[in-house]
Amino acid sequence: MAFSSITRTPNALGFSGSSFNGKNQFPKVDLSHFARNLSGKKTPIPKCSVQTRPTSQPRFIQHKKEAFWFYRFLSIVYDNIINPAHWTEDMREEALGYADLNSRDLMVIDVGGGTGFTTLGIVKHVDAKNVTILDQSPHQLAKAREKEPLKECRIIQGDAEDLPFPTDYADRYVSAGSIEYWPDPQRGIKEAYRVLKEGGKACLIGPVHPTFWLSSFFADVWMLFPTEEEYIEWFQKAGFRDVQLNRIGPKWYRGVRRHGLIMGCVVTGVKPASGDSPLQLGPKAEDVSKPVNPVVFLYRFILGGLAATYYVLVPIYMWIKDQIVPKDQPI
Ligand SMILES: C[S@@+](CC[C@H](N)C(=O)[O-])C[C@H]1O[C@@H](n2cnc3c(N)ncnc32)[C@H](O)[C@@H]1O
Q1: Separation CA 60–CA 66 (nearest Å)
Q2: Does the structure show a pLDDT above 80 at 311?
Q3: Using a 6 Å cutoff on CB, does residue 243 contact ligand 1?
């Protein structure tokens, strides 16, 4: 069930101007007049999609080195803890519905594919031999290799911000729950555009920013929880057309979004013409080959990891509420 759908046409946003080249400036925007649900009726946008965030967030794990070590450990329990709490099979089927996986011959890349949970949904619609899983974590990919339905997939280690595919390569680009770790999300979406063929579709599933203060604090200490407006702006700036955002969430949240969601929306866009993205960017925000101070690294990693545990507790809290609050009352 999609909570709602928002569609934009290029230059229709009325942003007061912002730069997302790693600088994190978040303009205050009022998009309530653009919000529509699937039946075309106007829907009030909840607070989380219109608020402005402060410019400086720690986001301790939104860096490639931290992400590497984070998944070094998380990969051990990833399939047992993360997916049942935040990214269920129901949600995955719904989200992939927006990717138009309408032929078994489509060439699909799953970026930040990790242990292959989303890829398992993709290969229901597309021949596994046409699917590539890319991830920065060899430990996550090792789990994907163990999965029988993914045996024929191509599995490669790589960076979402610098994809090892030629321009105009794939029919579909899918990325689920990975953008929050990319130091420069605009660059990753520009790459999505570049590697797609003309008429190809990108389908990115990602978190949404919380409005409740405590959740907002832990989210921002951990990693990037973008606003809906940011996703749409990134897609449009990369050159995508027919950009749409649909809300998703675990069933037991009953549509509650104030704590944010790790898998909270599905953003899709179509590449209108062959070639590279019209967007020009400077050098990458993070140079992974640069040495880091191990004390600073450890401090960041521990704080980021602790903040992440809050998001282990939130779905449990919501699940308990769903069990005890009568179904006709809000939770
Ligand atoms: C929450 S997991 C999602 C995995 C999978 N897509 C799923 O649906 O279960 C996020 C994944 O993104 C990967 N990741 C983080 N930063 C990345 C980057 N810059 N390039 C490629 N993969 C990245 C992580 O290694 C991790 O496997």
Answers
A1: 8
A2: yes
A3: no
CA distance 185 to 224: 9
- State the closest ligand 1 atom to the C-alpha of 160, by its place in the atom list counted from 1: 20
In a domain, 63, yes or no: yes
- Residues in contact with 92: Cβ distance below 8 Å, sequence separation at least 6, in sequence order: 117, 118, 121, 176
Got the DSSP string for 269-326?
EE--SSSS-S----S-S--TTS---HHHHHHHHHHHHHHHHHHHHHHHHHHHHHHHS-
Q: How many domains does one find in the chain?
A: 1
Check if 160 has its Cβ closer than 6 Å to any atom of ligand 1. yes
CA–centroid distance, residue 135 to ligand 1 (Å): 6
Q: Which atom of ligand 1 is nearest to the CA of 71?
A: 25
Q: What is the CATH number of the domain that holds 91?
A: 3.40.50.150
Least confident of 39-43, 68-72, 123-127, 296-300: 39-43
| Ligand 1 touching residue 113 (CB < 6 A) | yes
The answer to the question of residue 25 being in a domain is: no
What letter does residue 27 receive in the DSSP assignment? -
Instruction: Look at residue 115 and tell me if it is in a domain.
Output: yes
Q: What is residue 326's predicted lDDT score, i.e. its pLDDT?
A: 94
Range of the domain at 264: 5-10+57-272+287-323
Would the CB of 177 count as within 6 Å of ligand 1?
A: yes
Tell me the pTM: 0.83
CB of residue 206 inside a 6 A radius of ligand 1: no
